[in-house]
UniProtKB/TrEMBL annotation:
The keyword Flavoprotein applies. Belongs to the class-I pyridine nucleotide-disulfide oxidoreductase family. The lineage of its organism: Bacteria, Bacillati, Bacillota, Bacilli, Lactobacillales. This is Glutathione reductase. The keyword Flavoprotein applies. It comes from Lactobacillus nasalidis. It holds the Pfam family Pyr_redox_dim. Its cofactor is FAD. Keywords: FAD, Flavoprotein. Residues 336-437 form the Pyridine nucleotide-disulphide oxidoreductase dimerisation domain. InterPro entries: FAD/NAD-bd_sf, FAD/NAD-binding_dom, FAD/NAD-linked_Rdtase_dimer_sf, Pyr_nuc-diS_OxRdtase, Pyr_nucl-diS_OxRdtase_dimer.
């Protein structure tokens, strides 16, 4: 039986960053992957999304600037964009597996099953590992309604050659609203069906309302409190029926109703490893399962963190530091910023206004009135920063077409007492860029 220092089941961001670290040692690893090498983020998540957003952004930018110095909105050619996407990804997918392999790291294609505290089976072979890491991620949670098989998920979305005239998106999280944004900008008539009365729960709800209004003004129909009861195939496409009897016809139905843990068939039950079928594998402060040689990392680790790529990176670095450097302190997450890549974007780091405690204060800045935002037609742009009683920055939220980038400025300011001074002394920004926002907000 071939022996490794680490057997890693899954090749996503949580695995990748552990491999970067291990590359600096003489440790050996086996990576087992049953899907696309590189995991969700580069194949069916963040990366194809941001690639598509790159083309959608000028379309929507010119939509808002139309008649204000720009003649008419740009038009998106979906088919050409997907063709280009497929070409780029074909190359990426050809190279990704070989970029993981080196003299220390072997790869196997197949479904990994843990057979013992130090053994894993994949593709008919058993392997031995001093440590086993489970970064198996999440997969789309399919609605449990008749006809759910007619809906596609993000797994298929980024390879759609044609976009029908009408689409229905089920869900109200960032994936649902981002995909709705892409499709509407490409000319499809989009309806979003959300089961509850709220969208984008982890984000500032005042900004979510602004975003919802702007999306609605662009023609996206957003229906709240609209749980779906069934999806049926019709001669013209599909019909989605809500629990209240309303019917929505569409040429394409996208199920973005949520994601669930990839824990099936991993052998967890046999070893008595604790897990939740939706949220994932129970871990301690070192991401160890109740079997000490077996760790879980990234989205599948059930420890209350947001399911995001930068969180997966932090996890894999911690496992390395714990196992290789004997780090005693439990995992500490920085204030991880997050953004919707809708148009405009809503970004967030630290506390939201709704989480303010006694003594906290909020400062707002109408970014939409700055020359930069006026120039971009981003007149609804706004920023709010939350301070605690001691005057330290404890959170920031922004709605603007650059919010996803801007928020990275506020992450290092979390916990800083005099942010203006800190920024001026430590962060030498070009002007007029983000510095504009800092200067006006904090001076
Ligand atoms: C549409 C979409 C957009 C997103 N956008 C963003 C974003 O903008 N920013 C952000 O930070 N995050 C984003 N995310 C989330 C991000 O993709 C995840 O947080 C990240 O990929 C988690 O990394 P991971 O390594 O934990 O898991 P994954 O990347 O999911 O990798 C897990 C891998 O394990 C494999 N696997 C599972 N079970 C087995 C098994 N038994 N045997 C072998 N292999 C197995 C899977 O095939 C998969 O390749 C997005 C996700 C989606 C779906």
């Amino acid at each position: 039986m071939k022996k490794y220092d680490y057997i890693i089941i899954g090749s996503g961001p949580a695995a990748n960053h552990l491999l970067f670290k291990l590359a600096r040692t003489k440790k050996t690893a086996l990576v087992i992957e049953k899907g696309f090498w590189g995991g969700t983020c580069p194949n069916t998540g963040c990366q194809p999304k941001i690639f598509m957003e790159g083309a959608v952004r000028p379309v929507l930018n010119t939509y808002y600037l139309s008649g204000k110095g720009v003649e008419k909105p740009a038009k998106l050619d979906w088919n050409a964009l997907i063709k280009r996407k497929k070409l780029i990804w074909a190359e990426f997918r050809r190279e990704e597996r070989s970029s993981i392999e080196n003299e220390q790291v072997d790869t196997v294609f197949g479904h990994g099953v843990i057979t013992g505290p130090h053994t894993v089976e994949a593709a008919g072979q058993e392997y031995e590992g001093e440590n086993i890491v489970i970064p198996t991620g999440l997969r789309p949670h399919r609605l449990e309604v008749p006809g759910s098989e007619y809906a596609i998920t993000n797994d298929e979305f980024f390879d759609l050659d044609e976009l029908p005239a009408k689409t229905v998106v089920i869900g109200g999280g960032y994936v649902a609203l981002e995909l709705a944004t892409l499709m509407q900008a490409a000319g499809s008539e989009v309806t979003v069906l959300q089961h509850s009365d709220r969208l984008l729960r982890p984000f500032d709800q005042e900004y979510v309302e602004k975003l919802t209004q702007m999306m609605t003004d662009r023609g996206i129909q957003i229906k709240l409190n609209m749980p779906v009861e069934a999806i049926a195939k019709t001669a013209a496409g599909y019909e989605v029926t809500a629990e209240n009897g309303q019917k929505f016809a569409a040429g394409l139905v996208v199920d973005a109703s949520g994601r669930r843990a990839n824990v099936d068939g991993l052998g967890l039950e046999k070893l008595g490893i604790k897990f939740d079928p939706i949220k994932g594998v129970a871990v301690n402060e070192h991401l160890q399962t109740n079997v000490p040689s077996i760790f879980a990392a990234g989205d599948v680790a059930d420890n209350g963190q947001l399911n995001l790529t930068p969180v997966a990176w932090v996890d894999s670095y911690h496992i390395y530091d714990f196992v290789e450097n004997g780090l005693e302190e439990g995992i500490k997450y920085p204030a991880v910023a997050t953004s919707t890549f809708t148009y405009p974007q809503i970004a967030q780091v630290g506390k939201r206004e709704s989480e303010m405690e006694d003594g906290d204060t909020v400062r707002r800045m109408k970014l939409g009135a700055t020359f930069a935002s006026l120039g971009e037609g981003d007149t609804n742009a706004e920023l709010k920063v939350i301070f605690n009683q001691a005057g330290e920055v404890v959170g920031a939220s922004e709605i603007s077409i650059n919010a996803g980038d801007d928020i990275n400025l506020f992450a290092p300011l979390i916990g800083k007492k005099d942010p203006a001074k800190f920024a001026m002394n430590n962060l030498g920004f070009a002007f007029p860029t983000l510095a504009n926002k800092l200067d006006v907000l904090f001076r």
